[in-house]
Amino acid sequence: MATPITAPMLELRNPDTGRLDARRIAGYLAIPLSRLAPALGRKYGTLHKAPDAPAVQEQLAPIAHSIEMLLEVLDDRAAVLAWMNAPHPDLGGRTPLAVIEMGLTNAVEGMLQAALWGIPT
What we know:
By secondary structure, the chain is an all-alpha fold. Helices cover about 50% and strands about 0% of the residues.
């Protein structure tokens, strides 16, 4: 089954470059950029200077995609944040946000994708 094409959330992107922006993603998740930097394998200072650097796009993509999928289903930022901060049994009782902060961004994205496709985890 093919994934339908959806418009990217512009609020997660740098308006000048169109690239995903770590500062905007951290802001959307209501966490400081300093908590997101280790999850992306970056030092805070480096990420602070260039939050939309090409080198960080691959690490940001699963987080942005997870947010986009949740928003498509839940239709509300508050609900997205509640889901991200609620312990989940498929994540060993950890919150999706904690798993993202551990650098396991693909785990959350994959779990959400499987749920949308109707595949049990």
